[in-house]
Design goal:
The chain has about 260 residues and is mainly alpha-helical. Helices cover about 80% and strands about 0% of the residues. It has a domain of about 140 residues: Orthogonal Bundle (MetI-like fold), CATH 1.10.3720.10.
């Protein structure tokens, strides 16, 4: 009985299920990707998979194009999401919570259903599907992931700093540029990660909104794995993971930078 009580009262034991979950669904898949990426069909070590990618212009062009689409989507989400988050953070608490809920409600619907609804909307408006529809669909699907972290950061910001800046004679533009914007950068960094990572790895949205006429890097990975080319597909996945990791490091450095501003 004492052992049972100790098992459930010791804090470290509550972390065991999470460790097991991370090991099975995160660590082991990443290890398998690395093993397959550096192996050939005979399970021997090779760099041929990465050499094939570098010597394959279509794959390289798809990768560069996917990065461009991800950057475009992320920038569009920042331009649209930051003003929305700022306005929501300035409203009364009750009103802002209700409005934030309206932004989050679409996320309760499956992303494929939302994308199919976007396709139906473009068909109803007789707008051709293509790159414009792709960017629109990406922004529509991932905009809440940019708004919410920025909104949370702005809500938790110490507005006494804003009042101090105003008392020192700073105009509204200076207050925003030197106080509000620097303090909100951790939220922006989180939003960039939450938008850039799924955007660069998605394939279903591109297939639906371009009628398979535009291929993203996630589609290339899917095609190779579906065709049984596990080693090459794993190498492409590892390249994408490395890019996401670099993006995460850059975003972390931006979010952990000096908080506050210079008056």
């Amino acid at each position: 009985m004492n052992r049972g009580q100790t098992l459930f009262t010791k804090r470290a034991n509550w972390a065991v299920p999470y460790v097991v979950f991370l090991a099975i669904f995160v660590l082991i898949p990443i290890i398998l990707i690395v093993i397959y990426a550096f192996a050939d069909a005979d399970d021997k070590f090779t760099l041929a998979n990465f050499r094939k990618f570098m010597l394959h212009p279509e794959a390289v062009n798809t990768f560069v194009y996917s990065v461009g689409i991800a950057i475009t989507t992320t920038l569009a989400c920042i331009l649209l999401g930051y003003p929305a988050a700022y306005i929501l953070s300035r409203n009364s608490f009750a009103a802002s919570r209700a409005t934030v809920l309206l932004f989050i409600l679409p996320m309760w619907i499956n992303i494929l259903i939302r994308t199919l609804a976007t396709v139906a909307l473009f068909d109803f408006l007789n707008v051709p599907l293509g790159e414009g529809a792709l960017v629109f669909g990406m922004v529509y699907n991932f905009l809440p992931f940019m708004i919410y972290p920025i909104y949370n950061t702005l809500r938790k910001m110490d507005y006494s700093l804003v009042e101090a800046a105003r008392d020192l004679g700073a105009n509204p533009a200076s207050v925003f540029a030197r106080v509000v914007l620097p303090l909100s950068m951790p939220g922006v960094a989180s939003g960039i990660m939450m938008v850039f990572m799924p955007t660069i790895s998605t394939f279903a949205i591109a297939e639906l909104l371009t009628m398979n006429n535009i291929k993203l890097f996630g589609t290339t990975i899917q095609e190779n794995i579906n065709n049984g080319m596990w080693n090459y597909g794993a190498a492409l996945s590892l390249i994408m993971l490395l890019l996401i990791g670099v993006t995460g490091l850059i975003s972390s450095d931006s979010g952990n930078g000096k908080e506050g501003g210079i008056l």
